[in-house]
Amino acid sequence: MKKVKIALFITGTITLILGLLQLEQIFILPSPAFTIIRWALWILFFFYACLRKSLTTWILVSMLIGAELGNSFPEFSSNLQVLSQAFLKLIKVIIAPLLLGTLVVGIAGHSNLKQVGSMGWKALLYFEVVTTLALFIGLFAINLTEAGKGIDLSSVVVSNEIPQIKSQGWQEIILHIFPENIAKSIYEGQILQIVIFSILFGLGLAMVKDEQKRRPMISFAESLSEVMFKFTNIVMFFAPFGVGAAIAYTVSHMGLGILVNLFYLLATLYGALLAFLLLILLPIALAFKVNIKKFIQAISEPVSIAFATTSSEAALPKAMENLEKMGVSRRIVAFVMPTGYSFNLDGTTLYLSLATVFVAQAAGISLSWGEQLLIVFTLMLTSKGVAGVPRASLVILLGTAATFGLPVEPIFIILGIDELMDMARTSVNVIGNCLATVLVGKWEGEFTEVQ
Fold first, then answer.
1. What does DSSP assign to residue 366?
2. Are 313 and 388 in contact (CB under 8 A)?
3. Which of 46, 66, 149, 200 could form an SS bridge with 247, CB 3.0 to 4.6 Å?
4. Cα distance between residue 179 and residue 182, in whole Å
């Protein structure tokens, strides 16, 4: 492993220097020779991924190889769209069972609503306020940088499966929120309708007082959620192929210049998430007199797990354990942390508002502030069912684009760097949930400062 890292560093440095020299036309290397050097670098990355045996590493390597394929073999790469479409189809099929399972368990899985009491409404109020602020920060950031403008989508082949949605008035949009047939909603992929049904079903289940009648349905929802977690893990093994194909297809049609827009999008997201941490979460923590040093010590390990695995679920056990050690009672931790996984995904909600407007900008669609606020209102509902699953936000983004008549082609572009974005937003999700748990513990008087 050490030798491969050294070889990667040397080859990568040489490739970068030669690339810069050629770009500035200081030293022109014959094209075949430069191609051989680049492919030597990609082969080394491939062996490095084989040694690491990490899905994250494989996805990052597939992005690099995909970009090289798209640049060197555009005709071949133009046929790879089928792989990225297959991956997106597998992601889409997760939506209904994932939303149903996680929302029902989040609402009804902690006895009935009366027993949840003040702890419940305080947590939900906090979740809604903070995630709404996150949505607006994402909206402000993408309007400030306009990272999606200037992308040429004219060469992208429009899939026949993209729904043709007519413009609707506000009455039709409101009526469209409510389901008339849950099977139809699932078939059509109507996320809002599935969310409304799941919330009402969860409330109804929580109101059933007979434990014998209530418990089997909650157990089913819990089992369904667990199965969908594993299902998602299986689908993600296909992610390197889907992501690599998406980058190869995109570069083959639009050139390497598209990577500049992707960098702007990535920088916009990271900047927006940092602003959210410093301007929203830090002042809240200071206002409630949270010991910042001890809090950072408690969350550092689970946040690093979340960053590496891009899964909030992977960080949950360690986060719960560390917060208990910090002084939060087990009752608070057991309720707030799992509930937050459906209702308090700060990083993901910020990303969704940012990415939706990016899609519109890339498609050359000008959204008024009224339309953007309507998107925010929609995401306030749909983002509550994302759960702590890697890349599940792609499902919500696809559904939001379909709801507002936006093309899905720019989402294929985003797919190429979704892994890098998921690392940051998942880490912020975990930080936000840990802070919410500490605050509710302080509110309820069930936080004992550990010396």
1. P
2. yes
3. 66
4. 6
* Rounded-to-10 torsion of CA 251, 365, 408, 237: 60
Q: Which two tokens stand for residue 202?
A: 């969860």
Rounded CA-CA distance 400/13 in Å is 41
What does each C-alpha distance from 372 to 48, 55, 175, 358 come to in angstroms?
A: 43, 35, 19, 11
pLDDT at 14 over 70: no
Q: What is the pLDDT of residues 402-433, one digit of tens each?
A: 777 787 777 767 776 776 788 788 889 999 99
Residue 358 tokens read as 């990016």
Helix, strand, or coil (residue 332): helix
Strands (E), 264-322: none
Residues in the chain: 451
pLDDT at residue number 392: 60
Structure tokens of 409? Answer: 């082609």
| Residue whose token pair is 């995909």 | 66
Residue 273 carries which side chain, given as an amino acid letter?
Answer: L
Give residue 377's pLDDT band: very low, low, confident or very high (50, 70, 90).
Answer: confident
